[in-house]
């Protein structure tokens, strides 16, 4: 399996792209940086996009992606997400006002994108991968994902505050190689993390006590302007599994 980190920042700035993972060149998980990180030729190879939730930093390149692939693909790209997330896309994004409705362009029978509802805990088999959404605890309905090719697996929690189920799944995945999880705000802003359902480094420490596996844990979604404050706070956890996730890195198993 090849996992490419297209973007992993909690905010956009020069050199900092928003959340997006690419698995085996064919499956995108979240769409915060598809068009910013990939050539059009690479974008055309994406057949499935799995969204964790509707927040803008996880979906914002979908409109430009649909425009780039229009006329260059034979099959509609499937957008997999919770019903609530797809509802937001339909009502607020691909509504002909903010962006054309590419789910009926060029025609309803032969569209550019197709919406596919997902159900937490169900496994979806695409591009040789088993992808399982797991519900997490965020401001809007949100899932993390377990991605498993039968040999190796990784878990991406997406944006979440305190949660349990995804750690249970991680503990029960024998071929787990990596966990990607979040820390969004410094410890001093615990109130903001609570209000927006994110983690601080201290809260992350409590979450990691639930993960009883000696696998690498890579942290994403730091607020760009708070990175310098947060790095020593992450270090202070004293958890040897913890390291920052880095944009543009490729992890291969
Ligand atoms: Zn979010
Ligand atoms: Zn986010």
UniProtKB/TrEMBL annotation:
<dbReference type="InterPro" id="IPR001279">
    <property type="entry name" value="Metallo-B-lactamas"/>
</dbReference>
<feature type="domain" description="Metallo-beta-lactamase">
    <location>
        <begin position="41"/>
        <end position="212"/>
    </location>
</feature>
<dbReference type="InterPro" id="IPR000396">
    <property type="entry name" value="Pdiesterase2"/>
</dbReference>
<dbReference type="InterPro" id="IPR036866">
    <property type="entry name" value="RibonucZ/Hydroxyglut_hydro"/>
</dbReference>
<protein>
    <submittedName>
        <fullName>cAMP phosphodiesterase class-II:metallo-beta-lactamase superfamily protein</fullName>
    </submittedName>
</protein>
<dbReference type="Pfam" id="PF12706">
    <property type="entry name" value="Lactamase_B_2"/>
</dbReference>
């Amino acid at each position: 399996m090849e996992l490419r980190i297209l973007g992993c920042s909690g905010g956009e700035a020069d050199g900092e792209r928003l959340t997006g993972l690419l698995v085996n060149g064919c499956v995108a998980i979240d769409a915060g940086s598809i068009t910013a990180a990939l050539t059009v030729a690479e974008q055309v190879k994406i057949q499935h996009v799995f969204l964790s939730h509707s927040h803008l930093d996880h979906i914002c390149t979908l409109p430009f992606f649909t425009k780039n692939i229009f006329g260059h693909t034979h099959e509609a790209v499937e957008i997999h997400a919770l019903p609530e997330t797809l509802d937001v896309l339909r009502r607020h994004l691909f509504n002909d006002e903010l962006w054309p409705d590419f789910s009926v362009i060029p025609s309803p029978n032969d569209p550019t994108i197709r919406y596919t509802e997902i159900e937490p805990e169900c496994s979806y088999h695409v591009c040789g991968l088993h992808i399982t959404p797991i519900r997490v605890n965020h401001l809007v309905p949100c899932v993390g994902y377990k991605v498993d090719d039968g040999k190796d697996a990784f878990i991406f929690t997406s944006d979440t505050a305190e949660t349990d189920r995804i750690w249970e799944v991680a503990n029960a995945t024998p071929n787990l190689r990596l966990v990607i999880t979040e820390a969004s705000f410094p410890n001093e802003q615990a109130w903001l993390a609570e209000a927006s359902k994110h983690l601080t480094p201290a809260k992350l420490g409590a979450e990691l006590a639930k993960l009883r596996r000696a696998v690498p844990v890579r942290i994403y979604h730091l607020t760009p302007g708070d990175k310098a404050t947060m790095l020593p706070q992450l270090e202070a956890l004293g958890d040897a599994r913890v390291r920052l996730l880095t944009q543009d890195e490729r992890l291969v198993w």
